[in-house]
Amino acid sequence: AFLLLLTSLYIANATAQQRDHLTPLEVDRVKEAQILDKRIDVFIKATDRRLMVLNGTQANNAKQLKKDAELWGDLPTGSQAELITDIAKILDEAITNIDDVSARDERNPLIGKSLRKLAQAVNNITTQLAPFRDKAKTDAEVASLEMLSEDAEQILAAVKKLPPEVEKKGKSKN
Questions:
Q1: Taking the CB of residue 157, how many other CB atoms lie within 10 A of it?
Q2: What is the pTM of this model?
Q3: Measuring CA to CA, how many Å separate 158 from each of 31, 119, 130, 138, 144?
Q4: What are the pLDDT digits (tens) for 82-139?
Q5: Which of 129, 114, 125 lies closest to 159 in space, CA to CA?
Q6: Comparing C-alpha atoms, which of 11, 137, 42 is closest to residue 84?
């Protein structure tokens, strides 16, 4: 009986791990976006697409969806827990991308710009997902919301450590 339980847990875990948090076309957009702030824009767009599904606002955005279809493909599908987990994993990937650039060049001006964009998106995401927190029924939903909350806290904490944004006037050095 114990072996059967272990086997079923392993299969459930393997099934959960097979789901990609980005669609194939979103992966293509990430690969195309070689500049950090543009890549963060792709991650934000990917989270927005999942929020649209979660909130059921596809009909309100039909014109935009049609315009995006060729570049982004169909909207992602999945359970509420899967879509929220996707958002958390996308944020996690965005954090990793910012960390990677920071490790190579901590003075890169795109780090602050990207982190600020991401923090703004996180505020939007957490606002839109607040109603889901109260309605979470399954362990998977609770776990996905906790994962998302941890990523959001990490992003918001990092943005607080940034120096104030400086308005640039005149010519740039580039």
A1: 10
A2: 0.84
A3: 25, 9, 22, 31, 21
A4: 999 999 999 999 999 999 999 999 899 999 999 999 999 999 999 999 999 988 889 9
A5: 114
A6: 137
Whose tokens are 């906790």? That residue is 146
CA-to-CA dists, residue 151 to 31, 93, 122, angstroms: 22, 10, 9
Q: How far apart, in Å, are the Cα atoms of 40 and each of 3, 21, 159?
A: 44, 15, 14
